[in-house]
Design brief:
The protein is an all-alpha fold. It contains 16 helices and no strands. Helix 2 packs across helix 3 and helix 3 packs across helix 9. The longest helix is centred in the last third of the chain and has 29 residues. The mean pLDDT is 86.
Length: 341
């Protein structure tokens, strides 16, 4: 009789737990989407809101071990797919045609943000992994840059999630400050747009700050920001080379980081979006917007998977000093960008 009852019990298969884990990350992503509609959270955005919920879930209910394989799939595989699709946001043709002169200044900003925060983190004895990710996010393009660089430098999921949450929060704060001080700055709309695009953290933050100044300011701000997104590609390969040298120096060839092939997908879609879609192959704006929405949801689900690995105790002990370093770096980036205009 007991054997018959055991046979009747539903079997929890790996496929079932995988499906449940993936659906769980999308469910919390949906909660993050809804939370981002609430006043106050609307400026933070869907990604940071979802991470906030995921972190709280972990603290109150613990990590859902039974569906770990699905959650890991979201945080690893879906993250890489989202980065690949993110390539469609980068119009290389526009960068080369209209923004080539801005690339030099963008390069200065990225180099300063990363090198300065590394130096300051060492001075403050801050966590190096989180500080480096925050430097990349500050210099390049926020969460997307952090997500692209994290697997290259073998950052922990927890460090990646903390960095994305911090960059989203502080980027929002800085973009709001920009809108407040814009009327008193001695800048015309074009220069203000360049300043915003050169110094703010994510595309969304640039849009928040530049949109009140008008369409011309917004257009030049997004163009300037696209230059920084474009520079994510060579920056990634610089980190790949540095990690390879580090592994060779440590004689760890057997454990060296695998090549992040998703970057090739990012580059391919950037090329297709810039020179094929809309040119040789007509693609409607509705289709591109749908892909953009899918990218956002995939990235949000991936962030949920990362956020479930975050311990608030570690945030208090490990993220405070990197946050301080990032704030100082962001202020200096704003100042340097202002001087470079």
């Amino acid at each position: 009789m007991d054997s018959q009852q055991q046979q009747r019990k539903p079997q929890i298969t790996p496929a079932l737990t995988w499906t449940a884990g993936v659906l769980f990350t999308f469910f919390i992503a949906l909660l993050g989407f809804l939370l981002a509609k609430v006043p106050g959270f609307s400026h933070i955005g869907q990604l940071a809101s979802a991470i906030f919920i995921a972190v709280l879930y972990r603290q109150f209910f613990g990590y859902p071990e039974v569906i770990r394989n699905g959650i890991t799939f979201s945080s690893k595989k879906l993250l890489r797919l989202a980065i690949i699709l993110y390539g469609l946001k980068l119009n290389i043709d526009v960068v080369f045609r209209d923004g080539l002169g801005l690339l030099v200044r963008d390069t200065i900003i990225i180099a300063f943000a990363i090198l300065f925060i590394i130096w300051l983190a060492k001075l403050l004895k801050a966590d190096r992994s989180i500080s480096l990710l925050l430097g990349v996010g500050t210099g390049v393009c926020g969460a997307a840059a952090i997500a692209a660089i994290a697997p290259i430098i073998k950052a922990k999921d927890e460090d990646t999630a903390i960095s994305v949450g911090v960059i989203a929060l502080m980027g929002t704060v800085f973009s709001i400050i920009y809108t407040i001080i814009r009327p008193i700055l001695p800048l015309d709309v074009i220069d203000y747009g360049i300043w915003s695009g050169m110094s703010l953290h994510e595309l969304a933050h640039v849009a928040i700050a530049a949109e009140p100044a008008g369409n011309d300011a917004l257009a030049i701000a997004l163009l300037t920001k696209l230059g920084r997104v474009f520079l994510l590609v060579p920056l990634s390969f610089i980190f790949i080379y540095m990690m390879k040298r580090k592994n060779e120096d440590a004689k760890q060839r057997k454990t060296k980081a695998p090549f992040p092939y998703f970057l090739l997908g990012f580059i391919l879609l950037s090329i297709l979006g810039s020179y094929v879609f809309g040119h040789s192959i007509p693609v409607s704006g509705e289709i591109l917007q749908t892909i953009n929405n899918i990218t956002t949801w995939l990235l949000t689900a991936a962030m949920v998977g990362l956020g479930l690995n975050v311990s608030l105790k570690d945030v208090r002990t490990r993220a405070l000093k990197p946050l301080m370093a990032m704030i100082v770096t962001s202020i200096l980036v704003s100042f340097i960008a202002y001087v470079l205009i």
